[in-house]
Write a structure and sequence with these properties.
alpha+beta; single chain; 6 helices; 31% helix; four-stranded mixed sheet; Trna Endonuclease, Chain: A, domain 1
């Protein structure tokens, strides 16, 4: 699996950098929108039945939390994926392209959670995310 280079984003997500983000959210969004992240996906058909050249329909995976929130998890690199402790099928996607896809969903999401299994996980309000992208 390809490892992504999100060093600047991960540095901003560190607990000690949170004050910078709170004081200047545009600093975070500028870095976040040019990042490439891993997005969990679900294959809509049996992968073993595919032949070379066939296309595979994928659905972005979302997570329904115990408190009722419906969230999308994003991972900055393979190390963060491994922290989940279970196998997560994912694809690498540019965040700006992902925002175009998510804006078309008919599902109400609460948050985008970056590195949800990390001590430095970070939640973004879904509607605020779309607003920052002018949707």
């Amino acid at each position: 699996m390809t490892n992504l280079n999100n060093k600047k984003l991960k540095k901003l997500l560190k607990s000690k950098s949170r004050v910078k983000i709170e004081q200047n959210p545009d600093l975070f969004y500028k870095e976040f929108l040019k990042s490439e992240v891993f997005v969990p996906v679900i294959a809509m058909e049996n992968e073993e039945s595919l032949s070379d050249g066939d296309t595979l329909d994928l659905q972005i995976g979302f997570f329904d939390e115990e408190n009722g929130d419906r969230n999308i998890y994003l991972f900055t690199d393979t190390n963060e994926l491994e922290k989940a402790g279970y196998q997560i099928k994912s694809i690498a996607v540019n965040v700006m392209e992902l925002s175009l896809i998510l804006a078309q969903f008919d599902i109400d999401f609460n948050y985008i959670v970056i590195n949800p299994y990390s001590v430095d996980s970070y939640k973004i309000d879904f509607d605020e995310f779309l607003e920052k992208n002018n949707f």
